[in-house]
Design brief:
mainly beta, Acetoacetate decarboxylase-like, 9-stranded mixed β-barrel, 3 helices, 8% helix
Length: 253
């Protein structure tokens, strides 16, 4: 077996909220060669989308080089290339971050679509486990998008097996990633996470972003009640060096 070379690794603590979104809106976020995979988590005309509010510590090639930054991601699990529908991936069409160094690295060194944004949280936190109630606002620097978060912790801090809805869904978040640059060059990368602690949350998420114009806001109960819920989590992750994916000609439907 060919050894996977880890190029980036790090740790994160995050608030995540899973929503069921109309397929007609989700497909607008996908590049031409990528499509939604069949799944049974939502009604037939909808698809799961995971909204991540991350505090990242990314390590750069060497253990002592790292960058701390905030990140917001609308992540789409269960997608595939149209020329290979039997292999499933996850994809993050756009990533909002508050670090110019990360944006530079993403656009010059890595083919990631990251844009600058301003993050503010009340109370001021360095860790999403730092307070039971967290209110946040994210403003995209180009004044074309805004995200609001109002979250409240519920229940005890546990581990993944204490949250069966999330445990059953985790394999679809722990898959290889499709990376699409703004020019629609395609790459894939081996992405893996290892979870640490988890806690249920209630969250209200307000969205005004160009990638999801029709989805303005949603409420998520605790993940302990339903898959389409919210939680906070700590995890470590690894990302292998991307491999160029050469898309075969297929009918775009």
């Amino acid at each position: 077996m060919k050894k996977t070379r880890t190029a980036l690794w790090g740790t994160a603590n995050a608030i995540m909220a899973i929503s069921s979104v109309k397929k007609s809106e989700v497909v607008k976020m996908l590049p031409p060669a990528v499509a939604l995979s069949p799944q049974t988590f939502t009604p037939e005309d909808e698809h799961p989308v995971v909204f991540l509010f991350n505090k990242q510590r990314i390590r750069l090639m060497f253990r002592y080089l790292y960058i701390d930054y905030y990140e917001f991601i609308p992540l789409i699990p269960l997608v595939h290339f149209r020329d290979n529908p039997n292999r499933h991936y996850q994809m993050s069409p756009i990533l909002y971050v508050n670090s110019r160094r990360v944006v530079f690295g993403a656009t010059v060194v890595w083919p990631l679509n990251k844009v600058m944004a301003k993050f503010s949280f009340t109370p001021a936190i360095n860790d999403f486990f730092g307070a039971p109630d967290i209110v946040g606002q994210i403003d995209r620097s180009a004044n074309t998008g805004k995200v609001l978060l109002d979250s409240h912790a519920e229940g005890k801090i546990g581990i993944m097996k204490d949250f069966p809805h999330l445990e059953n869904f985790l394999p679809h978040l722990n898959t290889d990633a499709i990376i699409s640059s703004p020019t629609h060059d395609y790459w894939t990368a081996n992405y893996r996470i290892k979870t640490s602690i988890v806690q249920g949350m209630r969250a209200n998420v307000g969205l005004d972003i160009p990638e999801l114009r029709e989805l303005k806001s949603f409420e998520a109960p605790s993940i302990s009640q339903t898959l389409f819920g919210a939680f906070r989590i700590k995890f470590s992750w690894t990302l292998a060096r991307p491999i160029k994916y050469h898309v075969k000609r297929v009918q775009l439907y």
